Amino acid sequence: MTTLLRIDASARGVNTQDSSRGSVSRQLATAFEQRWKMKYSQDEWIRRDLGAQPPEFISEDWIAACFTPTEQRTEAQRQILALSDTLIEEVARADIILLSTPMYNYGMPAALKAWFDQVIRINKTFSFDLTRGDFPLAPIMSGKSMVVLSSTGEFGFEAGGIRQQMNHLVPHIRTVSHYLGVEHLFDLQVQYQEFKDQRHQDSKSTALEGIGPLMDKLGPLHK
Ligand SMILES: Cc1cc2nc3c(=O)[nH]c(=O)nc-3n(C[C@H](O)[C@H](O)[C@H](O)COP(=O)(O)O)c2cc1C
Fold it and tell me: Is the sign of the CA dihedral 164, 191, 213, 181 positive or negative?
């Protein structure tokens, strides 16, 4: 059995009355989930809705708690790390992380960044060892896949596109997800959402058509 962790990061929900309104990235994730469940009905799903319930930002006390050895932590420090522990446990259980996210200000939403800050934690998800030289950080977990399903209002964020240099969404996610043990990252993006024209419809169709081939790539890795 494969375990999938579905994370939704859009501040917008799904509009069940009118699919042209509401979160596009959530629609993509739901399409993926439905296709996956049709093929692999026995798999386990974990859900985390960051748009509806953004994680707390980390704080000075949070950082101090992380750097305090586990057995020396006070009850207050254990409480501070409780959410992080829960979120890391969800990641640890997952073979595949299905992440739906909008682009906000050319990068990830604050709620998603808050989640990454909570789950990338020393001695839990990465180790730090100066004997490794200039790259002292190494992930503790391994073998995970991540599927990033994103939506943007503008366009041209793909390799060679007119806004490639302004895309700080997927490249940032690719960099940080390494520290969660993600070894394979696949992404599909719907663009032109703000134009609401035929190009947006075509982009959405292309992304939806990409789900099948993407599942074909994930199958051999996790089945
Ligand atoms: C606060 C905010 C910031 C945004 N910033 C960008 C941006 O920098 N570039 C872009 O192409 N679209 C931007 N958009 C448009 C969204 O990426 C687009 O509406 C996308 O479909 C949102 O994802 P969702 O449909 O899943 O909610 C922004 C939208 C909002 C609400």
Answer: positive
Structure token pair of residue 28: 């993509």
Instruction: Quote the number of domains for the chain.
Output: 1
Determine the distance separating the centroid of ligand 1 and the alpha carbon of 64, expressed in angstroms: 35
Q: 11: domain CATH number?
A: 3.40.50.360
* Burial letters 180-210, b for 16+ CB under 10 A, else e: bbbeebbbbbbbbbeeeeeebeebbeebbeb
Q: CB–CB of 190/207 below 8 Å? A: yes
User: Which range of residues forms the domain containing residue 111?
Assistant: 3-222
Q: Whose CA is nearest to atom 22 of ligand 1?
A: 102
Query: How does pLDDT run across 35-48, given as a tens digit for each residue?
Result: 999 999 999 999 99
Q: Is 218 exposed, middle or buried (0-12, 13-18, 19+ CB in 10 A)?
A: buried
Contact yes or no for 59/27 (Cβ under 8 A) = no
Q: What is the pLDDT of residues 184-221, one digit of tens each?
A: 999 999 999 999 999 999 999 999 999 999 999 999 99
User: Does any ligand 1 atom lie closer than 6 A to the CB of residue 104?
Assistant: yes
**Polymer length in residues for the chain:** 223
Question: Does any ligand 1 atom lie closer than 6 A to the CB of residue 10?
Answer: yes
Question: How far apart (Å, rounded) are the C-alpha atoms in residues 119 and 28?
Answer: 24
Q: Could you count the other beta carbons within 10 Å of the beta carbon of residue 165?
A: 9
Is the minimum distance from the CB of 102 to ligand 1 under 6 angstroms? yes
